Amino acid sequence: MTEEDSIYGAVRTAEELGRLVRAHRKHRRLTLETVSGLGNLSTRFLSEFERGKETAEIGKVLKALRTLGLEVIIQPRGRATPAHRTGKTREETP
User: Given CB 3.0 to 4.6 Å as the disulfide criterion, which of 18, 24, 72, 79 pairs with 52?
Assistant: First the structure.
């Protein structure tokens, strides 16, 4: 598992989602200002989202995720999460 893979996983709270998004953005060496310009989102919204604001507008959250190259996958709890493009579940991945 690479360092990059370790930042991804199940998200249960707005705070966890924000923390994951911030880690992804920083790993990609993108500033809030850059993401703001690319996604036509305010830096204030992005900052609040990354800090776990629970009332963040879902449409803007999805737009921010798309802008950063992330996606949402919905599945029943307890299922193994697929590893990135390997065809194996995380439990099967060494």
Answer: 18
